[in-house]
Amino acid sequence: MSIAKNLSQLKASLPGHVTLVAVSKTHPAASIREAYDSGHRNFGENKVQEMAAKAAALPSDIHWHLIGHLQTNKVKQIAGFVHLIHSVDSLKLLQEINKQAQKAGRVIDCLLQVHIASESTKFGLTAGEAEALLGSEELAGMQHVCITGLMGMATFTDNGEQVRGEFRSLRNMFIDWQKRFAHIPQWQPAILSMGMSGDYHIAIEEGSTMVRVGSAIFGERDYIQKH
Ligand SMILES: *Cc1c(COP(=O)(O)O)cnc(C)c1O
Questions:
Q1: 194 lines ligand 1 (CB under 6 A)
Q2: Residues near 27 by Cβ (< 8 Å), separated by ≥ 6?
Q3: Which of 24, 29, 76, 151 could form an S-S bond across to 193 if both were Cys, CB 3.0 to 4.6 Å?
């Protein structure tokens, strides 16, 4: 099936309040162009260099989402154009984003990535670390970042109940922190980014407002998936 057809079917099946980020990592600009021409604007990449190269080659009204681990020394390559960074997992990284956003004359929207999976290899803050970051004096002093929500990845497993429980734990943090940190201007929680090709149905049932779907749109990626 074509990319445009996959996209339109997927979009038709999503509730209206859920934003679809089409994860185009490893796929060529021509594939993104096909999706773009069918009207899609939100694309996700996990590597800075790949995202910057594609952004330079494609229309400027695309909303680029950085969904993979971001190294501090690479922030400046995307600070001028990135739409949303899903993968903030340290105060140090957030400070660098704030600095580069200031240089670019922007406020960059970010999500805190919270570790909810049982696998120990995944990036992300623990719930306690995320809480500490939201309550920190450092965040209160940043004028060029806005934390618009949370992102999480569930364990790669066939056990739907485990996946559901992990997504539910993230939603509960989101709801709790919406109120608890409501007085902090840099915390404007509106986005709960959870759900990929294999688990977005469950994620939406558990309150996701943004799903990141790659292979269900573009087909399988051409490398051994580490998920
Ligand atoms: C690759 C990736 C996705 C999309 O994965 P699919 O299984 O292809 O839908 C979503 N989120 C993150 C963080 C990813 O790295």
A1: no
A2: 218, 221
A3: 151
